[in-house]
């Protein structure tokens, strides 16, 4: 994310800043400025990404950046993560304290070469995404993306669509995924027409659609998202992307998204809170994905969360265990009900028994890709998944 603690577009380096200088970096550029989304505090300072090195000292380089930020002083500047950063901890240490094992900004600075090696596929994806997003931002600064948003169509109510479908059918609402490939399964569908697939899903009862936008690992694109939005598809659209930077949320909105995915296993609490705030300003729904109990407990403590996805797939090794949904929900279902949070079951759903299992565990919606997209007729596949026609 364009983070209070890390930003790739650094201009001024301050080596090993003291407590006092860290606080000054964060606060000296705060000023009030109008935005067309809302009136908020605009911040023109930020810090460069930390670079992992093989040095035992694990030195950190921080810097002032040129990107614009909106922060509410009390909630963000005085956040726990900022206090930890002020005390000298790196952003990866701060994330690790929250149970996050995916390291950020670990590519070596040229011309040094060398550096860290990704520990798993998700870490590799995130490191590649950091490079990709930096390149995107250089080609299209956020102010240009904001200009596109001004002319974008209004967003559609993602959560309302899920709730209406559940009330109508009595089974979990379907978020059908438009996905050509995955790192674990390779090409899922050779004859891939995102618009035709989306239309088939909608006609056969999908409440919402998930559009993969990652190109390198899933062969998706933001252009596919835009094509589906402009094709007259009425289902709300989820931008299925590995979001690490605020720019991606703005770009998703400009390309027609109604919702975005935030992965708790990658994003510290302060990032999730700030991204939720931005989503509200843009009219977007945030689906916050968790995999383990610690991630779910973290997310349940964050105000404003409306939609949580429980992934049965471990994104570090891609092993799937459908019982993960039940394990996470069994002692937390009342808290979820009290907060009026809609839970989405993700991954490993292939049969009516699978859907019933997660439904009985407390799930009100399911996000399904592989078991539908691999079938010759995805519409018939939906009926096979639920054991009935959910389009009526």
UniProtKB/TrEMBL annotation:
GO biological process, one term: L-tryptophan biosynthetic process
Alphabetical list of Pfam families matching this protein: IGPS
Residues that span the membrane, as ranges: none
Entry keywords, A to Z: Amino-acid biosynthesis, Aromatic amino acid biosynthesis, Decarboxylase, Lyase, Tryptophan biosynthesis
EC number, UniProt record: 4.1.1.48
Domain of life where this protein originates: Eukaryota
GO terms of molecular function: indole-3-glycerol-phosphate synthase activity; phosphoribosylanthranilate isomerase activity
Sequence ranges assigned to domain Indole-3-glycerol phosphate synthase in this UniProt record: 122-384
Reaction catalyzed: 1-(2-carboxyphenylamino)-1-deoxy-D-ribulose 5-phosphate + H(+) = (1S,2R)-1-C-(indol-3-yl)glycerol 3-phosphate + CO2 + H2O
UniProt xrefs under Gene3D superfamilies: Aldolase class I
Keyword Ribonucleoprotein: no
Pathway where it operates: Amino-acid biosynthesis; L-tryptophan biosynthesis; L-tryptophan from chorismate: step 4/5
PANTHER family recorded: INDOLE-3-GLYCEROL-PHOSPHATE SYNTHASE, TRYPTOPHAN BIOSYNTHESIS PROTEIN
Protein name as annotated: indole-3-glycerol-phosphate synthase
